[in-house]
């Protein structure tokens, strides 16, 4: 541009607040615009320049509230690789763009509000200049949080301050047990029609400004200078702090895409959900180094009867950082509780070691879940109960709920298995639960399971306890035979809760009869037990061949007592169809 073009441009864009030397003896202003010094902001620059490196080679700089561009020009003259000046006022941006053209400098200027500044909109800068900005901010903390987010290394902040003779120093909040320190700050009463960029709102004391900057995340904050009614503060950002999101800018939405309505107790299930970043802050997948603080995850709470059953019920990580307006589908794997009933699973987002999003105003998504209780075949639970009793381990209480009973059987069997080798553990599980010893192939297979799978013993026992024998359930005995059986057992059908028959019974009351017989035969030798079972179930003595066959199997542990009682109760002979039992 020619000197004449520069002079014409300066005249056209009056009044100027920044005096900038455009060369050729031309300066942007020669008189004060609103009471400031004619050479403003040169006196302020005399403080600011000492806060910056002499050489900014390779560094990026953002000048917020850049006005006519004085500080942006000075940053570029110190060899900054990138300089961006932003201002909310169109007129000031036009002035700065003219200065850039007049000086031929590679500087970018944009019309933007400080409230629009995020890593997504402008990026992250090595050096942030916020000079003469603070007192124009109606939403002060929000703006400072934005400055924290877009600063990589250094923030230099200059502001008008509350003069020391206008206040008494800091104090603590009356009655506080948390040592809350009060820092003075003045609110400037503006006219009702005040415009934020034009009028002033807050005058902080230097200590208040320092506390504000620390509280938004800057850990190294120092008051560089206090001169008259102005102060300069220098903030250095700890490495990795940029990975911590600003709480006020965290917001999200969780939408359930797939979830079961009902699940068995103590089983793994999945909920598929879509999470969407509806806030302004990036959701980091890793958070701060070493601590992980700030990492965003999808989590769940388990509720029952309007109360929290498990607060941190499960968590799953993001596959990658998630920026504003981005979404991702996640699978949250959970395990149903042992206690059956109706539950509610709440899905919410968590910023690790900072907050759950619900506390920031995000509504969690909910899933209603019916947990179906354990139904253990009586012949399996009775075999385990007898096994636990024989080795002196706790057995389920008679008044235990199904889930409590299952938990006791499971824990006791796993404990007993842990005391022996893997091969012996497989043998124990088979004899107690399945009702017979395993063959060589089964022993080898399940030994490999115990050796290779995490928590293999628990999985094996759980699987065995809940497994139903294959084969069709026979028709129940005729009423006359059933009443005769009840008479031999000394247990009327009415006492066995036949209306609430257990799953897998061949007739209502089978489990009750079996438990009564097994209890009555406790302490009997095998031969006496077999004879008692024949008389009680079939109403006759055991023939020699049948007795010897069963005794041999019991002795070789090819058959357990509960399993054999079940065979008798399922036999054709009880139903009047023949004399031989059938293993179903």
**Count of alpha and pi helical runs:** 16
Rg estimate, integer Å? 40 Å
From the N-terminal CA to the C-terminal CA, the straight-line distance is 101 Å
Helix content estimate: 25-40%
Q: What is the average per-residue confidence, as pLDDT, rounded to a whole number?
A: 90
Biggest sheet, in brief?
7 strands, mixed
Q: Looking at the structure, what is the overall shape?
A: rod-shaped
Q: How many β-strands, per DSSP?
A: 20
Structural class: alpha/beta
Strand order of the largest sheet: 3-2-1-4-5-11-10
Report the portion of residues in β strands: 15-25%
Q: In terms of per-residue confidence, which ranges show pLDDT below 50 for 5 or more consecutive residues? A: 579-584
Properties at a glance:
584 residues; alpha/beta; seven-stranded mixed β-sheet; six-stranded mixed β-sheet
Describe the structure.
There is one protein chain. Helix 3 links the parallel strand 1 and strand 2 (82-87). Helix 7 (378-390) packs across helix 8 (402-418), helix 8 runs antiparallel to helix 9 (422-434) and helix 8 packs across helix 11. The chain starts with a helix and ends in a 15-residue tail after the last helix. It has 16 helices and 20 strands. A 7-stranded mixed β-sheet has the order 3-2-1-4-5-11-10, with helices on both faces. Strands 13, 15, 16, 18, 19 and 20 form a 6-stranded mixed β-sheet that branches. It has a 3-stranded antiparallel β-sheet with strand order 12-14-17, with no helix packed on it. It is rod-shaped, with a radius of gyration of 40 Å. By secondary structure, it is α/β, with parallel strands linked by helices. The chain has helices at 3-12, 42-48, 70-77, 90-103, 140-150, 206-215, 378-390, 402-418, 422-434, 440-452, 456-465, 479-489, 510-520, 526-538, 544-555, 561-569; strands spanning 60-64, 82-87, 108-111, 125-131, 151-160, 171-172, 181-182, 185-187, 202-204, 220-227, 230-236, 252-258, 262-264, 268-277, 296-304, 307-317, 327-335, 341-351, 355-356, 365-372.
């Amino acid at each position: 541009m020619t000197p004449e073009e520069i002079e014409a441009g300066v005249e056209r864009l009056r009044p100027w607040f920044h005096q900038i030397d455009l060369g050729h003896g031309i300066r942007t202003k020669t008189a004060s615009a609103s009471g400031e010094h004619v050479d403003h902001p040169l006196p302020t620059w005399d403080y600011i320049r000492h806060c910056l490196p002499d050489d900014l080679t390779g560094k990026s700089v953002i000048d917020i509230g850049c006005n006519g561009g004085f500080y942006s020009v000075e940053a570029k003259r110190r060899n900054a690789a990138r300089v961006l000046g932003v201002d909310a006022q169109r007129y000031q941006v036009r002035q700065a763009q003219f200065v850039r053209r007049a000086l031929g400098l590679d500087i970018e200027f944009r019309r933007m509000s400080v409230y629009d500044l995020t890593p997504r909109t402008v990026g992250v800068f090595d050096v942030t200049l916020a000079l003469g900005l603070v007192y124009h901010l109606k939403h002060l903390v929000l703006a400072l949080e934005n400055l924290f987010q877009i600063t990589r290394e250094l923030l230099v902040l200059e502001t008008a301050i509350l003069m020391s003779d206008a206040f008494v120093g800091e104090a603590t909040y009356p009655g506080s047990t948390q040592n809350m320190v009060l820092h003075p700050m003045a609110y400037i009463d503006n006219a009702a029609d005040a415009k934020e960029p034009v009028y002033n709102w807050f005058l902080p004391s230097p200590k208040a400004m320092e506390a504000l900057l620390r509280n938004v995340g800057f850990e190294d904050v120092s008051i560089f200078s206090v001169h008259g009614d102005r102060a300069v503060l220098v903030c250095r950002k700890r490495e990795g702090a940029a990975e911590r999101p600003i709480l006020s800018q965290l917001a999200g939405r969780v939408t359930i895409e797939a979830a079961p309505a009902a699940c068995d107790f103590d089983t793994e299930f999945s909920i598929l959900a879509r999470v969407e970043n509806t806030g302004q802050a990036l959701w980091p997948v890793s958070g701060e180094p070493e601590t992980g603080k700030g990492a965003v995850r999808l989590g769940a709470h388990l509720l029952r009867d309007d109360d929290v059953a498990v607060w941190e019920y499960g968590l799953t990580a993001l596959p990658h950082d998630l920026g504003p307006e981005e979404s991702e589908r996640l699978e949250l794997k959970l395990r149903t509780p042992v206690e059956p009933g109706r539950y509610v699973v709440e899905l919410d987002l968590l910023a690790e070691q900072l907050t759950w999003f619900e506390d920031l105003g995000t509504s969690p998504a909910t899933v209603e879940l019916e947990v179906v209780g354990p139904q253990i075949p009586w012949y399996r639970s009775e075999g385990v109960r007898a096994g636990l009793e024989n080795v002196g381990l706790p057995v389920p209480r008679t008044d235990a709920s199904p889930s409590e009973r299952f938990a006791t059987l499971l824990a006791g069997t796993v404990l007993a298995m842990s005391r022996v080798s893997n091969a012996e553990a497989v043998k124990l599980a088979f004899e107690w639960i399945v009702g017979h010893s395993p063959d060589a192939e089964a022993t080898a297979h399940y030994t490999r399971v115990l050796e290779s799978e995490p928590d293999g013993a628990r999985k094996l026992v759980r699987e065995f306890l809940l497994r139903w024998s294959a084969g069709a359930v026979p028709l129940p005995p005729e009423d006359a035979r059933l009443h005769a059986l009840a008479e031999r057992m000394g247990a009327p059908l009415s006492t066995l809760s036949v209306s609430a028959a257990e799953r897998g019974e061949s007739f209502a009351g089978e489990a009750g009869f079996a438990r009564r017989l097994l209890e009555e035969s406790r302490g009997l030798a095998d031969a006496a037990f077999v004879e008692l079972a024949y008389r009680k179930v079939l109403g006759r003595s055991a023939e020699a061949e049948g007795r010897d066959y069963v005794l041999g199997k019991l002795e070789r542990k090819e058959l357990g007592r509960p399993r054999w009682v079940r065979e008798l109760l399922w036999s054709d002979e009880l139903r009047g169809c023949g004399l031989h039992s059938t293993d179903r």
